[in-house]
Amino acid sequence: MSAASESFASMRIREFRQFITGRFLFIMGLRMMGTVTAWWIYQLTKDPLSLGLIGLAEVIPAVSLALYAGHVVDKNDRRKMIIRSVVLYALCTLVLLITSLLQEQIVVSTKIAIFILYTIFFFTGVIRAFSGPSFGAVIAQIVPIHLLANATTWSQGTWLSASVIGHALAGFLIAGIGITGTLVFITSIIILSIIFFRSLSQKLPPEQAEKRTWESVKEGIRFVWTTKEILAALTLDLFAVLFGGAVALVPIFAADILKVGPIGFGWLNAAADFGAILIVLLLILFPLQKKQGKLLLFAVAGFGLSIILFGASQWFWLSFIALFASGLLDGISIVVRGTILQLKTPDHLRGRVMSVNSMFINSSNELGQFESGVAAKLMGTVPSVIFGGCMTVLIVAVTWFKAPELRKLEY
Q: 66 with 129: CB under 8 angstroms?
């Protein structure tokens, strides 16, 4: 079999194609929703802290419920868990759509609209606690084990492609048809994704001895804690993204520093994802063969340097290039970390391990968004981004010496 043929091996499985098509539509809708609500809330408040509070509103329920969610995912049909999560997301976007319509008619005041937005962020955080582990756990039930690394790379590529299109398209749609029209589009594609998920067969969990909830949760935590490569990779991602979350402040850079409006905002939002999807496509065709641990550390360090450049830039195209480079390097991190998780996790623990992974991801992304908003409020937007990039580089240096298992990792 040729290298090109091997690269598309998992895509020859019809059910896997259905899964990633549905996931593509769903993630594109989510990324568009994140983009339009960030723009919307900043236009309502003109306060950088309001962007940080978005992350805080989502991360509290997402992290609080994550471990319990993993237990639930490992006890139930993962297909049903995915469908329920997507239906609830669609309802949340519908509420935002109605809010936007009422605000346009001056039926809803600015204060009420802001309250509704943050309430929806809280509920999407609850949903994400269950959806993240469900999506991560189901892949191994769709493809055979020998195709798992290839399927994981395709899944990450799909996620990143959806992010690219979602971020960029949202900016164009906001400029062209406004917030309400954009929300109509988002609601439609999330509903469409449900059709693809319904085509999947049942994905029942492996049979296992009945355990109390807390015992089941502890089993997942214990596995992550004792599997040093997984623990080091997740911890590195947590702190690197926590301090390097400059994307949360892109609305401020677009509106007030670079002055490029909603279209420029969309391109800046998509820049990192453009870089990430490019590298993931290359990794599908040319998988990493050795020294993946070292490459992960170098990639995260480069990510931090790119964030520093973005913070210091006063020119749109240099800012775009810096974010594009950060995406290239983050894409390597995403693929390596995702492959480690899939290859080293036994099937009966996937929901719980993926829930721990979701805790780290949600903590890094949403708490990173909150940290960025608070830092921007206290230090100023530009200094806070540069500080975050410096902290990311420092964290990599500490991890290099403190986590030799990760540095020596190969698969």
A: yes
The rounded distance, in Å, linking the Cα atoms of 21 and 161 is 11
Biggest alpha carbon–alpha carbon distance for the chain: 63
Q: What number is the average pLDDT over the span 181-186?
A: 94
What does the alpha-carbon distance between residue 217 and residue 334 come to, in Å, rounded to a whole number? Answer: 25
Q: Which residue has the tokens 């309802």?
A: 91
Rounding to the nearest 10 degrees, give the CA dihedral for residues 272, 275, 280, 281. Answer: 140
For 34, phi and psi rounded to 5 degrees? -60, -40
Distance CA 201, CA 143 (A): 13
CB 370 within 8 A of CB 52: yes
Alpha helical stretches, state H, 199-260: 213-226, 228-243, 250-252
Domains of the chain (ranges, CATH numbers): 3-204+211-407 (1.20.1250.20)
Residue ranges in 105-248 assigned as alpha helix (H) = 110-142, 148-198, 213-226, 228-243
Interaxial angle between packed helices 78-104 and 14-45, expressed in degrees from 0 to 180 and rounded to the nearest 10:
30
Q: How far apart are CA 233 and CA 357, in angstroms?
A: 10
Going by pLDDT thresholds of 50, 70 and 90, the confidence category of residue 3 is very low
Residues 6+ apart with CB under 8 A from 235: 360, 399, 403
- In Å, how far are 5, 276, 328, 358 from 160, measured between CA atoms? 22, 7, 11, 17
For helices 14-45 and 48-73, give the axis angle rounded to 10 degrees.
150
Tokens of 328: 């290239």
Specify the 3-state DSSP secondary structure of 91.
Answer: helix
DSSP 344-409: HS-GGGHHHHHHHHHHHHHIIIIIHHHHHHHHHHHH-HHHHHHHHHHHHHHHHHHHHHH-HHHHT-
Name the burial class of residue 405, with classes exposed (0-12), middle (13-18) and buried (19+) by CB atoms within 10 angstroms of its CB. middle
C-beta atoms surrounding 114 within 10 Å = 17
Q: What is the pLDDT of residues 70-87, one digit of tens each?
A: 888 888 888 999 999 999
Please, which residues have CB within 8 angstroms of residue 151's CB and are 6 or more apart in sequence? Answer: 10, 16, 139, 142, 143
Mean pLDDT, to the nearest integer, of 201-223? 71
